[in-house]
Amino acid sequence: MYFYNVNELYRAMSPSVPLQEMIRAIRSARTQCEERGVIQRECAAIRAQFRQADNGGRSHNLAKLLYVHMLGYPAHFGQMECVRMIASPRYSEKRVGYLGAMMLLDEKQDASLLITNSIKNDLSHSNQYVQSLALCTLACMGSAEMCRDLAPEIDRLLRASNSYIKKKAALCAVHIVRKVHDLGGVSCIASSGGTPSDNSIPRVLHGAVVLIIELCERNPETLERFRKTVPDLVQIMKGLVLSGYSPEHDVAGISDPFLQVRILRLLRILGHNNEGASDAMNDLLAQVATNTDSTKTVGNAVLYETVLTVLDIKSESGLRVLAVNILGRFLLNNDRNIRYIAMTSLQKIVGTDHNAVQRHRGTIVDCLKDQDASVKRRALELSLALVSASNVRSMMKELLLFLSSCPAELKAHAASGIFNAAERYAPSQRWHIDTILHVLTTAGGDVRDETVPNLIQLITNASELHCYTVHKLYRALLTDISQQSLVQVACWCIGEYGDLLLRGECQETEAVQVTEDDVLDALETVLQSHMSSPATRGFALTATMKLSTRITDNVDRIRSIVSIYGSCIDVELQQRAVEYNALFKKYDHMRAAVLERMPVIEKNSPGHTNGESTGEAIKDIQPAKVKQGEPLLPPQPANQVCDLLDLLGGSEETLQPCPAVGAPAPGLLINTASTAGGDLLDLLGVLEPAPLAPAPTVPVYEKDGVTLTLSCEKQCDTGLTVTLTASNSTDSDISSFTLQAAVPKSVQLHMKAPSGDSLPARRTAKVTQMVVLNNPNKVNLKMRVRISYTSQGSAFQDTVQIDSFPGLDAAGQ
C-alpha cells in the first residue's frame, strides 16, 4: 500500500512540480532503487525543459537540480544552464545561476571561463546585491587566471564607500592573494588594503584584518609596511576590550570576539622577532589577559590567542609568566579540548620557560588520570619533559604509577621516556636499577631491544650492588616469567652472581635462604615455559652452564639439563648446548676459566677489551651486542693453547696465520697460528704485544641528525673491509634504516648482514654495516652509498659519494 502511494504521488507530478513536492517524493521512497527511479525521471524532465528556448521555470528547474546534486547524483548537465542564467538580467535567475556555478563548477573545468565576463560586468552593476553575488562566486571558485584578470575590479571595490561591498571585496581579495602566487599580480590589492584605522565599521575591519594577515604572511615587504599600523591596532583592540555592551556584536559578554581573535593574530605576526612592535603591544596584551572573562568558551578563545601572541613575540618575562598561568588555568577546565590545547602549548615552551611551567606540575600530573587517550598522551609527554634532577624521585613515582594502568598503546612510549629520564637524572645507581626493574616488571614486553644490554651494563658497573640486584631479580623471576626482558636480565645475573645468591647474605635487602635446587628449578622453569622466547632460553641455558662453576652439589644435574638441548629444534640453542657439552667432556679442565665472571662492560670504549689495551682496531662495543654466551677467557698456559683452539671444532688441521685479529666483544679469544708458540702466547696476554695504530674513522655523511662514519681495514693486497657506522642524534627514533652500496664494475662487493635496522634517539645505539671489497685490477676505488630510513612516519632517502678511504695506500687501491 505504501509503495503504491509513492508511485501514485510521483505520477501525479507534472514537469513543473514544485521543489517541495519533489523532495517529498524522494523522501517517501522506501528503497534506494525507488529513490533512483524518482530522481532519474525528474532529471529527464529537467533536461527536456533546459532544451526549450523559452523556459519560464529555469530557476525553478536549476534549484531542483541542485538538490539532486546535494544528494550525490550526477548533475553536470546543468553547468551550461548556470552560465546562461548568470548572464540573465533578472536578479532571481542570476542568484540561482551563481549558486549553481559555485556548486557545479570549479576552476578545473573549462565552463568556468565562460562566466568571467559576466562576473566582470556584474562587479560594475549598480545593484549592490548583484555585485555581492559576483564577489561571492569569485571568492568561491575563481581560478588563478580569473583572479589575475579581475584583480583591478576588486581593487576598485576595495575603495568603495559601501561597507557591504567593501567587506565582501576584502574577503574576495584574500582568495586572490592565495591563488595568485606571484605577488606582483596583486600589488594593487596590497596598496588598497589601507590601514585598519581607515575602516571603523566592524564588519569591514574584520575583512581588512584578514586580508592584511594574508598579505603579511606571504610578503616580507608588506609585513614591514604594516608594522607601522601596530599603534592603530592597539587602539582598536583597547576599544573592543573596554567597550560596553553592544547587542549587535556581543557574544556571551565579549564584544566582537571574532574580530579580537583576528587582531591578536595579526599582532602576533607583526611582533614576531621585532622588539619595537612587541614593546608597543605589551601593555595591551596584559590588559586583555586580565580583563577577559575565562568562564565562557568565547573568553577562553580570546585568552588562548592572547597567550599565543605573548609567547611568539619578544614579550617581557612577567607577561610570559602570566601567559603560562593562563594555560595553567586551562588545565583545570572541564572541557577536554581546552585542556588538550593548553598542554600542547606548554609542551612547546617547556624548554624556554621551564620554571614557569614547573609551577603547574601537579595539575599536569593529574591529567595523566584523564579518561581521554589524547589528553593522556599529551600529559605524558609534558610530564616527561618536566623531569629534572630536583624532582626526579617524585615525578618518577607518578610516572611509574601511570605506567601500571596506562593503555597498551602508551606503554612503550612511557617506558622509553622513563628510561631516558632515569639515565639523565638518577640520584644513585641503586635507584636507577630499581626504577628500570620496576618498568620491566610492569611493561617488560613493551620496552626496546637495547634495554636488556643497557641494564646489564649498568649492573656490572655497580659492583657493590651485585648481591642486592641478584636477590631482587631472583624474587622477580619466581613471581612472573612472562616479562621476557626481565627474565633475560634475571637469568644473566643469576648466572654471573649465583654464588652471591646462594650465600644468602645481603645487607641491602631481606636475607632469604636459597638452595642450589631452588635456583636450578627456576632456570629450568624458564627453559621449559611456552612463554619463553628463543633468546630467553639462550640466556637461561648459559646461566645454567655458568652455575656449574659456582655450585658444588648439582653439577650432574646441570650436565643433564645441557645435554637435553643438544638436540633442540632451535639451531642457536642447539649450538650452545653442544659447545657446553664439549666443555663438560673434553675440556672440563678449562671450564672454570672459560665460565668465570664477566668483567665490567665499558660502554662505547674503542681500543679496549677485557680491560686491557690491545694493538688491534676495536670497533665501538654497542650495548645490544652483549651476549652472556661469550664469557671471558683469561691467559692460559702454553700446553692448553691447542686445546683452546680445538675447543669447538675438534679439527686437527694446521691453522694458517691471519694478518689481523678483531675482538668485537668480551669473549673467547680465538686466533689462528702455525704453532702453539709465541704468537698464541702473545695473543693470550703472556707476552707484551707491540701496539699498532688503530684504523682511522672519518665521517662521510651528516644530515638531519643522521651521521655515517667509515673505517677501513686492508685484509690483503686486493682485499678491503669497510665498516659503516650510523648513529641518530635527533629526539625521535628512526626505523627501517638500510644502507645500499655500489662500486665500479671491476670491483667485487659483498655486504654482510647489518647489526640492526633501527636507530634509537640521542645516539643511544648504533647500526654497523660491514662491506667486503675485492679490487683485483687495483682501479681507483669509489663507492656510492644510499641511505634510507623512516622518521616520524615519513620516509627519507639520500645518497653519498665516497671517493677516499682512510688508512689505505693510494697506489694499492
Structure in words:
With about 800 residues, the protein is of the alpha+beta class. Among the domains are: about 10-105, no CATH class; about 225-315, no CATH class; about 465-595, no CATH class; about 695-800, Immunoglobulin-like (Sandwich), CATH 2.60.40. About 55% of the residues lie in helices and about 10% in strands. The protein has 35 helices and twelve strands. The protein has a five-stranded antiparallel beta sheet, with no helix packed on it. A three-stranded antiparallel beta sheet has the order 8-11-12, with no helix packed on it. A hairpin with a 2-residue loop joins β11 and β12 (about 795-800). α16 runs parallel beside α18 (about 315-330) and α26 (about 450-460) packs parallel to α28. The longest helix is centred in the first third of the chain and has 20 residues, at about 30-50. It is elongated. Mean pLDDT is about 80; it is low at about 1-15, about 185-190, about 605-690 and about 810-813.
Distance between the termini: 94 Å
> What is the mean pLDDT?
80
Order of strands side by side in the largest beta sheet? 5-6-7-10-9
Number of strands: 12
Largest sheet: 5 strands, antiparallel
| Residue fraction in strands | 5-15%
How large is the count of helical segments? Answer: 35
Radius of gyration, CA atoms, in whole angstroms: 39 Å
List low-pLDDT spans. Answer: 1-14, 183-188, 605-691, 809-813
Q: What sort of overall outline do the alpha carbons produce when their principal axes are compared?
A: elongated
